[in-house]
């Protein structure tokens, strides 16, 4: 079997504008890329690619020449070759190609990808993960809505102001009581002193983890923070080096939980390795959302194939990233289940996408 073609089809993706703390804004008119890797045996693999206006050209010009004629079952070798291009090629591009190859191999084997990786579980709980809300009351109402629907965990992205963030966290805890697991994701907003103050406050409130309080290049302050607090700290979402940069975070006790996803880490291949690395130290590796529906499906396969990922993240829990599949991941009752169909196992809604087709890059 050989790879015969790689192309990116670009489609309009229009969602309402939304934001999270630290000034990050999303939505509005933008485009979504669908990457297709074709083979000489008629089996193709697909992945979604964000930011195709730039990334599609890079994929075709720099990555595609390394793929044509390769055996798509040589996933490890292909991924290693792509990783050597990371100074010029985004990890999301590498990840999209890697997902396509796993999709091909799952279809070839007639099995969902998590079976090829080594299935560990059939379901996991979901945590609802907020966007930015103007008022404390809106944060409370959202948490209560999910709690009433049977969800057991909820994560807050607050305002990036320490006093306001503590107030939001306290109000949400008061609203949902002690039965719901709550997490805080501060999105790299604080300096060291404020990270201690917020951490101690949510520690007293019984929060389940404290995510990204500091800039991820500031490993020195993470080490100090972890020495000060008892609440589990989760970092490394965008840590330099991705998988290859994790060793120092573990050995220096800078974080309690590792973090990654198929877009930021660079595909299913390194994400599984990251989870196994954490497992070797009896650590959890919680998988971050993938930024679009098909990336989240790929994340779900890895989640089911490793023993040390406890949750599936639904971010934002307004549903702004749910787009482009005939049926998206079912999260009824705050639980997701392992895919059962070959490959990624979810059907792309080509009719909907092609109603706003922007062009093809190949």
How is this structure best described in words?
This protein is α/β, with parallel strands linked by helices and 362 residues long. Helices cover 39% and strands 22% of the residues. Strands 4, 5, 6, 7, 8, 11 and 12 form a seven-stranded mixed sheet that branches. A four-stranded antiparallel sheet has the order 3-2-1-13, with helices on both faces. Strands 9-10 form a two-stranded parallel ribbon. α6 links the parallel β5 and β6. α2 runs antiparallel to α3. The protein is globular and about 60 Å long. The model has no long low-confidence stretch (mean pLDDT 97).
Indicate the low-confidence ranges by residue numbers.
none
- Oligomer type: single chain
What is the residue-mean pLDDT, rounded to a whole number?
A: 97
List SSEs in N-to-C order.
Answer: EEEHHHHEHEHEHEHEHEHHEHEEHE
- Rounded to an integer, what's the Rg over CA atoms? 20 Å
* Beta-strand fraction estimate: 15-25%
Helix content: 25-40%
Could you give a quick summary of the protein structure above?
The protein has 362 residues and is an alpha/beta fold.
Characteristics:
alpha/beta; seven-stranded mixed beta sheet
Which helices and strands occur, and which strands form pairs?
Elements: E1 3-19, E2 25-39, E3 45-50, H1 52-67, H2 75-83, H3 91-109, H4 113-117, E4 123-129, H5 136-148, E5 153-156, H6 162-176, E6 181-185, H7 192-204, E7 209-211, H8 219-228, E8 233-234, H9 246-251, E9 257-260, H10 262-265, H11 268-280, E10 284-287, H12 293-305, E11 312-314, E12 335-337, H13 350-354, E13 357-361
């Amino acid at each position: 079997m050989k790879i015969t073609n790689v192309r990116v089809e670009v489609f309009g993706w229009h969602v309402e504008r939304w934001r999270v703390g630290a000034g990050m804004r999303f939505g509005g008119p933008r485009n979504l890329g669908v990457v297709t890797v074709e083979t000489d045996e008629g089996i193709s693999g697909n992945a979604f690619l964000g930011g195709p206006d730039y990334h599609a050209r890079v994929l075709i010009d720099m990555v595609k020449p390394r793929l044509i004629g390769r055996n798509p079952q040589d996933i490890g070798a292909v991924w290693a070759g792509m990783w050597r291009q990371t100074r010029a090629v985004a990890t999301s591009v590498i990840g999209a190609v890697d997902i396509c190859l796993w999709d091909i191999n799952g279809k070839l084997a007639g099995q969902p990808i998590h079976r090829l990786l080594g299935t560990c579980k059939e379901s996991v709980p979901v945590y609802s993960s907020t966007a930015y809300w103007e008022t404390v009351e809106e944060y409370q109402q959202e948490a209560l809505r999910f709690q009433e629907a049977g969800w057991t965990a909820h994560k807050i992205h607050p305002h990036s102001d320490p006093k306001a963030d503590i107030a939001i966290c306290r109000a949400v805890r008061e609203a949902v009581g002690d039965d719901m697991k709550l997490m805080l994701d501060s999105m790299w907003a604080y300096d060291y002193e404020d990270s201690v103050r917020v951490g101690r406050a949510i520690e007293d409130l019984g929060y389940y983890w404290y995510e990204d309080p500091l800039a991820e290049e500031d490993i020195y302050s993470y080490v100090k923070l972890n020495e000060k607090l008892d609440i589990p700290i989760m970092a490394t979402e965008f840590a330099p080096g991705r998988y290859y940069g994790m060793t120092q975070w573990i050995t220096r006790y800078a974080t309690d939980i590792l973090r990654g996803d198929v877009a930021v880490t660079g595909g299913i291949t390194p994400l599984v390795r990251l989870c196994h690395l954490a497992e070797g130290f009896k650590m959890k590796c919680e998988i971050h959302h993938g930024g679009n529906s098909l990336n989240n499906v790929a994340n779900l396969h890895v989640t089911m194939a490793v023993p040390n990922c406890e949750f599936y993240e639904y971010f934002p829990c307004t549903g702004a990233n749910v787009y482009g599949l005939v049926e998206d991941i079912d999260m009824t009752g705050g639980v997701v289940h392992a895919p059962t169909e070959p490959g990624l196992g979810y059907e792309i809604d080509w009719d909907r996408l092609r109603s706003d087709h922007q062009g093809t890059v190949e």
